[in-house]
UniProtKB/TrEMBL annotation:
SUPFAM superfamilies: Outer membrane efflux proteins (OEP). The keyword Membrane applies. Its main location: membrane. It comes from Gluconacetobacter takamatsuzukensis. It is found in: Cell membrane. Keywords: Coiled coil, Lipoprotein, Membrane, Palmitate, Signal, Transmembrane, Transmembrane beta strand. Belongs to the outer membrane factor (OMF) (TC 1.B.17) family. This is Efflux transporter outer membrane subunit. The keyword Plastid does not apply.
Length: 505
């Protein structure tokens, strides 16, 4: 058989393999169509198209709806400096690198080599084959060689394609993971800021009550000197003043701890923003109730999107396992001229090369390959069920947040009226006591009632703000206006390896 015939036959085999390369085994991914309700049960009215469009726009930067410029600045600093967010971005880069590594199997793998040295052969071995130019009385020889080795795997049944597809889905999962980290971080920053302003408000309430208790103590002393009061009333007033002073200290501690937590969320040392945050500001306003639809939740929740991508990845892994049961085709090539002198390396007699078309077919592996397929099928079904469970959990969280938002409106209004009535009753009790018409016990009772009512109102206002944060978070808002990742490799491969400027290894 002539060399030309061999080459044509090899070319025919290669062409046939390339034609078959369009065959990709394993199931094609089909999204799980889960039936969801047309609207939420806690909706006051079905949302219009205009309301849905407005809500979709608001979700991108929902924290602006609270109308607090200081909060907006803190969120921007957290997006730029939070370390958990940066770590999640690096994981995206790592998964992308793995995807590119999987995709490299599509291309020929080429390596260059060279050899230069001396060798000596034993004369004590019977029938040692004489080499050309190396008689028996010369057991040593110089050896020079250079060459190229290459291998190309033909992806006939889509094993590589399925591997790349699965890794691409893994990349998309890490993107959703980063979005989930971003949402959690945003929720933590906004919630901590609300708690900070609420605690500062309660500190103001505490300071006012300390002033009231001080006035009551001064009043009991004055009345005692005028012969109206008694030492019991003085002791009661002093005890109330001390109690109010003691209640203020935990509030100061809590404020310091919250500012430290905000600093860490922004990626800076605790105490960095304490000076600017210690200035008390009013609580932010409660935004309008957003229009909601189930489609918004499905489109925006990173956990739902990640679960769906995980199901797609598991489906692709089935294809990888199935492809292992089919023949594998590869083309190895070796070109290695060798000689004993430099000038001989480039002569025709020094040429040495190999070119094959290799095929391997798995025959008997004790059921290992079929077991791998069954395992991947079970993993894919588990991913599908996990996706469904994630959807149910997400809808429950939205329903719960909507219910809390609606229920807290009337609750907050009632507590506001109770606080106003309690303050009025406390003022009247002090006036009646100074006129000698009621005892000091009535004063203490009304003051404590007023303090409790004011604190309850502050907590209710905080709960309303937290309900808004929880609903926006449950709807999957916040990541839409932020780039997927702003990270980059710290070392440039092009600067590390001169060959990398021409080839991406």
């Amino acid at each position: 058989m002539t060399m030309m015939t061999k080459t044509r036959r090899a070319g025919l085999v290669l062409t046939s393999a390339l034609v078959m390369a369009g065959c990709t085994v394993g199931p094609r991914y089909q999204p799980d169509r889960m039936k969801v309700p047309e609207h939420f049960t806690e909706d006051e009215h079905p949302a219009t198209d205009a309301e849905i469009a407005r809500t979709n726009a608001e979700l991108k930067d929902w924290w602006h709806r609270f109308g607090d410029a200081e909060l907006d600045r803190l969120v921007d600093r957290a997006i730029g400096g939070n370390y958990d967010l940066q770590i999640a971005g690096q994981r995206i880069l790592a998964e992308r690198a793995l995807r590119d590594s999987q995709a490299s199997a599509w291309y020929p793998q080429v390596d260059a080599n060279t050899t230069n040295g001396d060798s000596r052969y034993s004369l004590n071995v019977d029938n040692w084959p004489l080499r050309p130019g190396n008689p028996a009385n010369r057991p040593g020889a110089s050896y020079l060689s250079y060459g190229v080795s290459a291998s190309w795997q033909i992806d006939v049944f889509g094993r590589i394609r399925r591997s790349v597809e699965a890794q691409e889905r893994a990349v998309e999962e890490t993107i959703e993971d980063r979005r989930a980290v971003l949402m959690t971080m945003l929720s933590a920053v906004v919630s901590d800021y609300m708690v900070l302003r609420d605690t500062q408000l309660r500190l103001e309430i505490s300071n006012r009550n300390i002033s009231v208790a001080q006035e009551a103590y001064d009043l009991t002393q004055r009345l005692y000197l005028e012969g109206v009061g008694n030492t019991l009333q003085i002791a009661q007033a002093k005890a109330e003043l001390d109690s109010q002073l003691a209640a203020r200290e935990p509030l100061r501690t809590h404020i310091a701890q919250i500012t430290h937590a905000l600093d860490v969320l922004m990626g800076q040392m605790p105490g960095t923003t304490e000076a600017e945050l210690k200035i008390a500001r009013p609580l932010p306003k409660v935004p309008d109730f957003p229009a909601t639809m189930p489609s918004i939740v499905l489109a925006n929740r990173p956990d739902i999107r990640r679960a769906e991508r995980a199901y797609a990845e598991s489906t692709a892994r089935i294809g990888v396992a199935v492809a292992q049961m089919y023949p594998n085709f590869s083309i190895p090539l070796n070109f290695n001229p060798n000689a004993s002198a430099m000038y001989q390396l480039f002569q025709a007699g020094a040429l040495s090369w190999q070119f094959f078309m290799l095929a391997s077919l798995p025959l008997a592996h004790g059921g290992k390959l079929t077991a791998q397929v069954r395992g991947m099928q079970a993993a894919a079904e588990a991913s599908r069920l996990s996706y469904r469970q994630t959807v149910l959990t997400a809808f429950r969280e939205v329903e719960d947040a909507m219910a809390a938002w609606h229920d807290d409106v009337e609750h907050t209004e009632l507590l506001h009226r109770a606080a106003e009535d309690s303050r009025l009753a406390s003022d009247r009790a002090r006036k009646l006591y100074s006129a000698g018409l009621v005892g000091f016990l009535e004063v203490l009772t009304t003051e404590r009632t007023a303090l409790a009512a004011e604190n309850a109102e502050a907590e209710a206002r905080l709960e309303r703000l937290q309900d808004a944060v929880n609903l926006y978070t449950a709807m999957g808002g916040g990541w839409q206006g932020v780039a997927v990742t702003a990270t980059a490799l710290p070392v440039s491969l092009e600067k590390q390896n001169i060959l990398a400027r021409a080839f991406k290894e």
